[in-house]
Structures are given as structure tokens and as C-alpha cells.
Amino acid sequence: MKEARVEGERSLLLGIGISAVGIGMYVPFSLVFFHHVTGLSFTLVGLVLTVTGVAGLVFMPLAGTAVDRFGAKKVNLVLYGIRAAGFALYPFAGSLPAFAAVALVTALADRSFGVVQQSLIGEVAQGSARDRLQASTRALQNAGMGAGALLVSGVLGLWGTGGFAYTAWGNALAFALAGLLVGRVRPLRAADAAPPAGGPARQAPAGYRTVLRDRPFLGLTAANFLTALGYAALSVLFPLYLSTWLAAPDSLTGAAFTLNTALCAGVGVLIAGRVRRSGARRTRSAALGAVLFAAAFAGQIVLGTLRPGQSATLVALLAIVVVYTLGELVHSPSGGALSVSAAPEAVRGRYLATYQLSYSLATALAPALFTALLSVDGRLPWAVLTVAALGAALALLRLERHLPAQAVHPEPPAAATPGRPLAPTAA
């Protein structure tokens, strides 16, 4: 049976892909990028980016409130506009106060964008369409960032470091185009949205106190924190582990990243579609992704114990990256759709802002945690990640009966409709 398409879906996905190209043009070179664009020292650029990044985390709860008050689409368009204006202004921000001001405003928009985009998916789609959009979004983000990195490499090859200014304006154009495309998306009207399984939805009171009282959703957020540590491993732990514990060439890191990006962009939608058509509950498919993460991390422990020759290490590492990437492709769409669908519509922005903090906290803690564990034994951080991933999988399975039926099931099963809960119950 062919799935119904979201109105304006192609524009939404095209906008996400174009904005990902813009992100790929500066994220891999962020310190160098802003150093050459502004003329400030690396030390000052790094300090400003750190401070503004932390400020962006503090702003996320306000973004969730704005989504609930004004709607995800409107806030999404505002953030695209801020990001476009910020990158257009960066080449003119040659002084420290000017750079700090532009970086702060842009960081507030960047950090909050994930919350708003997840909320937008919930606003424009329902049922299995949310899972499909989650998978398509991730694939396009990986493909777009890879294309952006290649594009900026070409620009620098033609114009040298002076090309960073052109890249900044290219980013501004990318975000502006993405905003125009997303403007064509049509959110579901209240009358169009199907009621949750079992009857009409319960009207949730507004405010973050609602989220804090929702123990199943907080459990879901905590489980995601454990998995999010695994997402941070590829970019933070993997390169250090290769160079220090395995004494492998740095080129292996590039090979691993390339393989991961290619698989995410090339087969991510296909794998997510197979999972979706299997009828698996979102909690169980997300748990399967976490188990695959654990298998990949356990493989690193074995590899770090055996320490074979360089050829065998290359083959083993690429095999581990394949398993890791499969875990990512299985977990991400189901986990994302699960969080969106578990959030009551009236306070969806606040719920997803809380959920997104699990990713942000894991990303912030990962460097210190991984380096401290690695200094003791190269296998220790992988052991911690293995236990964390298995703990996340177990938590997801235990939370299944406490989460709303419409969150657990992409499409509510007819047989289960009468007896399933309408909203989260206390664990």
C-alpha cells in the first residue's frame, strides 16, 4: 500500500537538503572558517564559539515555548532567516564585539533548529509518515553535508582562504532558499489529524511542569541520552582511539567517516522503509538500533584486545563501522518519531526541547568523558558505551507499555485500539 504524502513534502525535504549543504560548507572547518572570515585569532574564535554554543543550549527551552505558542512552521522560518542574516554578516564582523554579537544570534538559531524541525515533522505528518520523514531528513542531511564539504574544498582550491567569505555568503543563500521552500509546507489542520487510538486526545496543560510530571517521557529522554553518547563516539572517540590505542594511520578515520556518510545517504531511506513496512513497534526498532550500537562497541573492545596487523585492522574497523551505521539507521527514524508522537500536541515544542537536551548534554560531556576513560585503558570507553547502549535498549522495552499507543505504533493496530492508553501514565 502506497503511503500518503505530506502536502509540500518535496519542498520540505529539498529545503533540508539545501540547508545541509550550507552546514557542510562550514562545520568541518569551523575554527578555520571563522578565523579567515573575521580575521580574529583562533583563540578568540574558539572562545566565542564555546560561549555562544552554551548560550544556545540555554535558549532551547524558550524555542520550545515559541513553537507551542506560534507553531513550528513560523518559528522554523524565523530561524532560517536568522541563520541566513548571520552568515551574510560574518564577513563584515571583523571586530570581537561584532563577531560575538553575530555568533550569539546565529548560535541561538542553530542550537534550537533541531527542536523546531522535529516539531515541524509532527506538525505536518502523522503515523508512519513521521518515520519516513525522519529517515529522509537524516539521509539528506548526510548527503548535503558531504556535498557542502566537497563544494567548499573546490572553492578554496580556486580562491584560496579568501574563498571563505564567498562560502559565508553561499551559506546565507542556502538558508534563505531553504526557508522559501519550507514556506510551501502545509501543517495539518486540527480537523485533518486523526485522533489517537482509543478516542479523542486529552488536552494537556501548558508549561514545562507538564513535561516534568510525565515520567515515561522523561524515561524516554534518559534512554536517548545513553544512546546519544554512542552517536558522539564516531566523531569524538573513534579518531583518538585509532591514533593512541591502535596506533593506526589517521587516514582510517577519513575512511570510516566516508563509509558512514555514504551508507547514511545511500541506504538510510531503504533500511528505514524496511523497518517501517515490517510493522515493528517504534520502541522495539529503536531498541534494535541500540543493540546494534552495543555490538559495534563490543567489536571495538575485541579489536583493541587483539590488535592485529594494519590490513586486518582496516577490514575489522570498516566492518564495525557498517554495524554501527546500521544501528544508527534503524534507531534514528524510530527514535525520532517516537519522541514526536509521545509529545502531546499542545506542548509538543516544550517536550521536544526537553528531549533534544539529551543529545546536547551527551555531545557536551562526550569529549571529557571519553578522554578520561581512554587515559585509563583504550577499551574502557567502549565498554561503558556497550553497557549504555544495552541499558537504553532495555529501557525502551520497559517503557513501551507506559507510552501512548500512537507513539509506540506507526499505525495504530485495530486489535490493540480499545485497550491502549491515550496518554503517558505514571511508570
Q: What's the quick description here?
A:
This protein has helices spanning 9-24, 30-38, 42-70, 72-89, 96-124, 128-159, 163-182, 208-213, 215-245, 251-277, 282-306, 310-342, 348-376, 380-399, 405-408. It is an all-alpha fold and 427 residues long.
Write the layout of secondary structure elements.
Layout: H1 9-24, H2 30-38, H3 42-70, H4 72-89, H5 96-124, H6 128-159, H7 163-182, H8 208-213, H9 215-245, H10 251-277, H11 282-306, H12 310-342, H13 348-376, H14 380-399, H15 405-408
Helix pairs in contact: 1-6, 1-7, 3-4, 3-5, 3-13, 4-5, 4-7, 5-12, 5-13, 6-7, 6-10, 6-12, 9-12, 9-13, 9-14, 10-12, 11-12, 11-14
Low-confidence stretches: 190-205, 414-427
Radius of gyration: 22 Å
**Individual helix count:** 15
Q: Averaged pLDDT, please? A: 86
Determine the structural class based on helices, strands and strand pairing. mainly alpha
Which of globular, elongated, flat, extended, rod-shaped describes the shape? Answer: globular
Order of helices and strands: HHHHHHHHHHHHHHH
Main sheet? none
Roughly how many Å apart are the termini?
Answer: 36 Å
| Helical residue percent band | over 70%
How big a fraction of the residues is strand?
Answer: under 5%
The total count of strands amounts to: 0
